[in-house]
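Researcher: I'd like a structural prediction for the single chain below. Treat it as a standalone chain; there are no partners to consider.
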Amino acid sequence: MTGLPGWMRFGYSPGWVDRSPTGLPPTAEWIMSSGLMPQYREYLRTRRIPSAAPFYLPSGPVSREDEVRMLEEQAKAIESQLDIVRRRIEDLKRIREGKSSA
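Model: Treating it as a single chain, here is the predicted structure.
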């Protein structure tokens, strides 16, 4: 209904479960992990909204508390991604050594 394929939608999609740490598509993961969430929220706040929009976007600048919370969430996401990469490296090393990675 959005006109976008599932991989482009910003939000949860069952198709991304087990493919990303949060179940979000790549675009959402990138925005969250890049540190650009405050700018993205500002973009959402200032963009022109059609008059028939049935929702309201957050307004005003991001508070320090919100920024701290977002940065903590970003750190958790990065740590989660790093854990996944480290596990994959260990799996590949085990496979290379001739051991199973069950």
